[in-house]
Amino acid sequence: MLETWCSIADEAQITTTTIYKYFKNKDDLYVAIISLIVDRTNSELNMQLTGLSSTRSKIRQVVRFQLEFFESNPKIAYLVFACVNISYWYQHAGALQKARESSSLLSKIIRERQRKKEVRSDIDRHVITHLLYGTLRAMVVTWLYGKQSYRLSDLTEYFADAIYGAIIKSRPHHPSSAR
Predict the structure, then answer these.
(1) Which residue, of 35, 41, 51, 129, is most buried by count of CB atoms within 10 Å of its CB?
(2) Chain segment 31-77, per-residue pLDDT in tens
(3) d(CA 155, CA 65)
(4) Is-contact 136 82, C-beta < 8 A?
(5) pTM
(6) Using CA atoms, how far apart are residues 152 and 71, in angstroms rounded to an integer?
(7) Beta bridge partners of 168
(8) In this structure, what are the phi and psi dihedrals at residue 54, rounded to the nearest 5 degrees?
(9) What does each C-alpha distance from 139 to 20, 63, 66, 78 come to in angstroms?
């Protein structure tokens, strides 16, 4: 993994002086890289969501896309989830904006489906996005440090169904009717 300025410069085939000219530290460099990735992946995911109509299929596609992306790009997964401390995202406005952009597609789906009364309106959509992306982070980190001994994408259905089951509006359950 890219851990030193020298290894970063070698990988990029530039001098460390050039890196210092644009970035004051590795976290700034990492966030710049992650920002590019967020822009590209959001665009691609948005295209993949086009034409999907059900809440379940949209959530499944968001989950599938994320898991397959990080499975195919473990160095990026390591950078996003292991190199940059989560507190950094909240301390730097540009980084926080990118984190928000990353979750905006899911948030938009939830908001739209809440308006249509398909998704529970008693759950704030931000809580739902935190649930998805917090769980995604935990799953990817576990996979990374577990030596990638299984396919991350094999968890798509379980993960998507758990999120969907937690937010879908269903008939009220009355404990007295279970007797």
Answers:
(1) 129
(2) 788 888 888 999 999 999 999 999 999 999 999 999 999 999 998 89
(3) 12
(4) no
(5) 0.82
(6) 6
(7) 119
(8) -85, 150
(9) 34, 12, 11, 12
